[in-house]
Amino acid sequence: MSEGVKRRYDSTRRQEQARENQRRIVSAAHTLFVDKGYGRTTMADIATQAGVATETVYATFRNKPTLLHRAWDVAVGGDEQDIHLLDRPEMHAVLAEPDLATRLTRFAEVNTAIMRRTAPLLRALRGAATSEPAAAALVAEADSARLEAMGIHVAAAARTGRLAVSAQECRDVLWSTTDGTLWHRLVVERGWTDDRYATWLGQMWVSMLVTDDQETVGRLHLG
């Protein structure tokens, strides 16, 4: 009986240790990809930063592109749960908001938090994309996934009957202003706080994309 309990305890402890190693490896990879560059970062560098053996990094993630994808997924979601961004509670709350202006304001707040986690990594990968196929592939994948997500936001926005522009224009505006470039320029380079940035972004979206003018709504619908 005691032997069985011991085996279960040992198994649980090993699983927790494996999860902790994974967390440390992903965190180390993210930091090094941003600070040192994806191409210049080796698996040995990541192991040293994480405080584990290089063999552990390979055993956990097999190769650097796989680790890059995991680091990106964790950055986007904000944790290690394998839950799509649109299925997360904070995004459900955004899409459930009936008033479009309020919805866009809340979306700006959520997006700002996402930019804090992802923009530095995406910026580093864009810089590496010309010489690193894995970096180029992830950048393209991220841009495509974001465009698809913006399409979902816009479809929901159109159903409110308050879009001031066409659905395509709304999608393009949201897509082009959520890639981290604006966040980096204003927060990192110009010293804005995240709160100031989120407020500004929400106000810009509302002023550009929302209307109560039924004539404008009807014209867009007919077009």
Structural class, by secondary structure, is mainly alpha
Mean pLDDT: 92
The SSE order reads: HHHHHHHHHHH
Measure the end-to-end span.
Answer: 74 Å
Q: Give the helix proportion (percent range).
A: over 70%
Envelope shape:
elongated
Query: So how many helices?
Result: 11
Radius of gyration: 21 Å
Strand content: under 5%
How many domains is the backbone divided into? Answer: 2
Strand count: 0
How is the biggest beta sheet arranged?
Answer: none
Sum up the structure in keywords.
mainly alpha; 223 residues; 11 helices; 2 domains; Tetracycline Repressor, domain 2
Describe the structure.
The chain is built from eleven helices and no strands. The protein is an all-alpha fold and 223 residues long. It folds into two domains: 79 residues, Orthogonal Bundle (Tetracycline Repressor, domain 2), CATH 1.10.357; 141 residues, no CATH class. The protein is elongated, with a radius of gyration of 21 Å.
Could you write a compact summary of the structure shown?
The chain is mainly alpha-helical. The chain is 77% helix and 0% strand.
Topology:
Layout: H1 2-35, H2 43-50, H3 54-61, H4 64-77, H5 89-96, H6 100-128, H7 133-158, H8 167-176, H9 181-189, H10 194-209, H11 214-222
Helix pairs in contact: 1-2, 1-4, 1-6, 2-3, 4-6, 5-6, 6-7, 6-10, 7-8
